[in-house]
């Protein structure tokens, strides 16, 4: 990156000349490609663009030279600033020259002490070469970093993190609907503030750096540095990052990058990262979820589909979604929980997952926590030693049988419990006559040493069977 006019003024060899900026202070951040000594009144053809012109003032001391025309000629030829040394030809800069430079916002600097122009040229050349060498080293570092990510088929978030780390600026990956797929660098809550609106309408006005992602005929996203910075490294890093994302997407395509981003969001919601809820709120809005409640959280088994846009997958495969209402009809068990406000979402997602874990096999329906009854309590206590001891106490004689007899006895006892002790229903469930059913109940009672007609005993056995199933016993 070439030095600016302001940076050249800070070089010791220039500072020794006691430089004073007489005009164009607002343009001192203009970059200087080279330093050129010129005493020509018309420098056309001698400059190639980006030069700081050094002079002892011969052109402006000529009474036939119009200061405004001279400065315009400098600018047209490619000059970005004029530095005049006082003493040999001029004791002071002509007022007409100063006024013309101010009118054009063209940097005009006077040197009040003599300097050797060759030393200024050498100093600037050294600075330029140092910058170029640093840029070459940085380019190699960038190439190595993204080559490694491409070989590893890194996830998009890691590519974005690398880009932000190299630049020191926030970097955002969004899809063509302006939904944020990944963000790194800075405070996410601040970076993603009103993201969709700003990205759609204000990106150019705010001076954002934007590079498309995907093949030219199949663009699928954009990499954005959402801030105005004058840094030659930004486009280089973004282009390398975009190329890496494009290659990875072709070699290891994700079926839905937006869903992947939502899945990461759900995982972070449950983990509550350091950024906390403000960051999650900003990311949710940038992913298309209105953060204003109330919400209905849905959870269903892995591989299921939910007709809700804001859907993701947890690491264990559970499908989770945030909507505004329960589904009217479902093709599989769906657990739900309500969240009145965004702050309630972590608890609601946790509750929906808990409910789903306790849902029994059976027809497709929507389950709430209250629908689980005793099943929900048993599921929560499934690893509690006291519950496991209760199972052993109630079902021990059966559990100690050999595999064939244990399986047959448990099947009969479950059928009896599901029939609520009604012999006719029990006989139907096991496919036998009522006398045979009575006989089987007597044998079960003798095996357990319990009166199976006692309501308290039946209740205890029902709970024990439920606990055994939940804990995977038997």
TrEMBL record:
In terms of superkingdom, the source organism counts as Bacteria
Using the record's annotation, list all stretches that form the Purine catabolism PurC-like domain.
Answer: 7-126
Pfam families from the UniProt entry = HTH_30, PucR
Record's protein name: Transcriptional regulator, CdaR family
Report domain PucR C-terminal helix-turn-helix positions: 410-467
**Which species?**
Pseudonocardia thermophila
Lineage of producing organism:
Bacteria, Bacillati, Actinomycetota, Actinomycetes, Pseudonocardiales
